[in-house]
Amino acid sequence: MTFFHGEYEIDEDRSRVDLDWVHGLLAKQWWCPGIDRDVVERAVCGASLVVGAYFQGRQVGFLRVVSDRATFGWFSDVIVDETHRGKGIAKALVLYALKHPEHQGFRRWVLMTRDKHAIYEGCGFAVVERPYDWMELQPQGKHY
Ligand SMILES: CC(C)(COP(=O)(O)OP(=O)(O)OC[C@H]1O[C@@H](n2cnc3c(N)ncnc32)[C@H](O)[C@@H]1OP(=O)(O)O)[C@@H](O)C(=O)NCCC(=O)NCCS
Predict the structure, then answer these.
(1) 11, 38, 62, 101: most buried, per Cβ within 10 A?
(2) pTM, whole model, 2 decimals?
(3) Residue with CA at minimum distance from ligand 1 atom 8
(4) Residue 8 contacts residue 54 (beta carbons within 8 Å)
(5) pLDDT tens digit sequence for 54-64
(6) pLDDT tens digits for 8-57?
(7) 110-114 long-range contacts, Cβ below 8 Å, gap at least 24?
C-alpha cells in the first residue's frame, strides 16, 4: 500500500527502510539516546508494521507499530528529518497506520510522548484519563 502526501511517498515496505538514517536520528532522541544500531535493526524487524516517508527516494520519516493486529497497537519511534519538519509528515505516517486494513476494530492504541501531544491529538488521541490503571516496567532502570 503506497500513499502520497504531497511530494512525499509513504509506504510500509520494510526493505526500503534506511537503517543508517533511522539509527542516526533515533540515537539523538531522549527516549533512546545512543541506541545501538543492532537494537534498531531488531526493532525494525520485530515491529508488526513500519511506515516510512520518502522524498525523491530518500528516507525522511519513520515510525513503527507493535501490535497483535487484532486488539491493540503501540506507536513508537516517530521521527522526521529536520529539514522536512512542519509539513505534516508525522501526522501522515500516524494516519497511514491508523487506517491500515490490519488495524481496524482495535480496542486501544497507545503511545508515549513528552511534548508532542498536538501531533497525536490531531489523529484522535487523548491523554489517558486514568493513569493509575497503567503500569510499566523498565528493566534497565528508569531513564525517562
Ligand atoms: C515530532 C516530529 C516527529 C514532528 O514531525 P513533523 O512532520 O514536523 O510533524 P507534523 O508536521 O506532522 O505536525 C503534526 C502536528 O503536530 C504539531 N507539531 C509538530 N512538531 C511539533 C513540535 N515539535 N512540538 C509540538 N507540536 C508539534 C504540528 O503543529 C502539527 O499540528 P497541526 O496538525 O495542528 O498543524 C519531528 O519534529 C521529530 O522527528 N522530532 C524529533 C523526534 C520526536 O520528538 N518524535 C516524537 C516522539 S513522541
Answers:
(1) 62
(2) 0.95
(3) 85
(4) yes
(5) 999 999 999 99
(6) 999 999 999 999 999 999 999 999 999 999 999 999 999 999 999 999 99
(7) 110/72, 110/73, 110/74, 110/75, 111/74, 111/75, 111/76, 111/78, 112/31, 114/30, 114/144
Residue 90 Cα to ligand 1 middle (Å)? 6
For residue 116, what is its C-alpha cell?
Answer: 508532542
Question: Could you give the CA distance from residue 71 to residue 113 in angstroms, rounded to a whole number?
Answer: 22
List the beta bridge partners of residue 52.
Answer: 11, 62
Q: Compute the distance between CA of residue 144 and CA of residue 134 in angstroms, rounded to an integer.
A: 16
Length of the chain: 144
Say yes or no: CB of residue 85 within 6 Å of ligand 1.
yes
